[in-house]
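WARN retry 2 of 3 for item q-0093 after timeout on previous attempt; input resubmitted unchanged.
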Amino acid sequence: MDLATQIAELTRGIVDLHVKSELEARLAESVKSGKPLRVKAGFDPTRPDLHLGHTVLMQKMRQFQDLGHHVLFLIGDYTAMVGDPTGKNKARPQLSEEEVRAGAKSYFDQAKKILDESKTEVVYNSTWLGAMRPMDLVKLMAKSTVSQMLERKDFRQRFEEEKPIYQHEFLYPLLQGYDSVAIDADVELGGTDQLFNLLVGRDLMGQYGKRPQIVMTTPLLEGINAKLDEHGKVVGDKMSKSADNYVGIDEPANEQFRKLMLVDDGVVWRYFELLSAKSAAEITALRGEVAQGRNPKEVKKLFADEIVGRFHGAAESQRAHKAWDLKFEADAVPDDVPTCTVACEGAELWLPKALAEAKLVASTSEGRRMVEQGGVEVDGARESNVKRALAKGGTYLVRVGSKNRKFARIQVG
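OK item q-0093 returned
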């Protein structure tokens, strides 16, 4: 592939690039010599599961692979025991070797769903960091000042708020940066929250007499509960398991499909841009169709089909799509609707109370609110009359909610 095409492909979606002219020069050298670039991306195995947020970075790694470059998938088994302070307002707990080993075990097996295994070299930074002697660490720490470390937003904020900063936390960026020295990285990839650490690596390489790496950052993907603000900007916490706003790449197909259909209609374009294999032109065309009146739900289904198919195959994606339609489409009734018998002392039972007795809502007051808001259907018809009662002896198909719909056949006895 020619140089201009490589540059366009590799910089698509990139937030920070230090420095573009150097990337162009190094790619030109690679084209001329046939020698691939060494592209590094590091992952601390603090949690064993990967989610779609991780794949934004991994897809950029895959782009480098598809262009013939060599990817180093660095597992930070040593740095994970130190603890990355990035984005933290207090010290991150240090992990034991056993915890790190458990977290690292499944990392690459999951990553192989995105990366080309034959073009990926897995390295562990304990290989070189674990061999460092105390004096080696002293020499490494001498290459940075406390004032430089306090340029980091999280360190500076904690310092200003008089919250403790532990000395080992200053060591983390240096250890991560030394990884680039040890493996002679040409390029390091990371999320935007890792920019400081990546630039430390670039600086250290120069101090060790090596050509500084190019630094490229990818956006942080917001969670599935993100919204658009009044200016049309996507707002929300980044996707993470701890925030329970994630889609795990190892989750069942039906669960992946369901979660992706919960993404806000306006936010799904952010997901398309960061995760879809569709071209920019194709995404623009879909936007135009929605602007002309196409139901955005149809577009979300296209996206969910693509993502679920990527991790589970086309057949499973189709089954998940069908299962979602049966359960959540307006006119569809699932095959497995439970039947509940609720007691009735008189001739009829107040609908909100029946909803609570059937466990469709948490309480009678919530049932009343759902009826008032138009979120309840009885035998296929929306019910908004809060005085509605169900006659004793009858059986009623009841649905509650719209996105997260619940069904029950209520027998009033």
